[in-house]
Amino acid sequence: MVIASRRTELVTRAYIDNSSSPIVRKIAARGVKSGCVAPLISHGRVLGTLDIVSFREDAFTEEDAEMLTQIANHISIAVENALAFREIEELKNKLSEEKLYLEEEINTAYDFE
Questions:
Q1: Taking a C-beta distance cutoff of 8 angstroms, is the pair 91, 36 a contact?
Q2: Which residues pair with 53 in a beta bridge?
Q3: Radius of gyration, CA atoms only, the chain
Q4: What is the 8-class DSSP label of residue 58?
C-alpha cells in the first residue's frame, strides 16, 4: 500500500486484523498492534519501506509519521549510495575480468608467454 501510494501510512489495529497479507498476518501473530510505514524514495523510484511497529494500539501519531518520513528520506539517500557503490564494484570487477581475458588472448595470439 505504501509503495503504491508513495506516502507514509499509520497502520492501525483494524488494518492489521483485516489484512490478508501474509506479512501482516505474520507480524499480527507476534502481537504487533500498530505501526508506521514510510517509503524509501530516491530519484523517483521506491527502493523499499522503513517500518516501525508497536505492541500497543495507536502507538504512533501524525507527527511520528512526519518524522519517519524525514528519516526515510535520509535513509533512501544512503540506500541509493550503497546500491550505486555495489554497481560500481560489480562493473569494476567485470572490467578486471575482461582485461585479464584480453591479456590472455593477446599473449596466446602473439605467443608472448
A1: no
A2: 35
A3: 23
A4: T
User: Residue type for 8, please?
Assistant: T
CA dihedral 60, 65, 70, 71 (to 10 degrees): 40
Whether residue 32 has pLDDT greater than 70? yes
Q: What is the pLDDT of residue 113?
A: 54
Mean pLDDT of 52-64: 97
Q: How many CA atoms lie within 13 A of 2 on its CB side?
A: 20
Cell numbers 585479464 correspond to 100
DSSP 37-101: EEEEEETTEEEEEEEEEESSTT---HHHHHHHHHHHHHHHHHHHHHHHHHHHHHHHHHHHHHHHH
**What b/e sequence results for 14-27 when a residue is b if at least 16 CB atoms lie within 10 Å of its CB, and e otherwise?**
ebbeeeeeeebeeb
Cell of 48: 523499499
Length of the chain, please? 113
- Taking the CA atoms of 54, 64, 61 and 9 in sequence, report the sign of the dihedral they define: negative
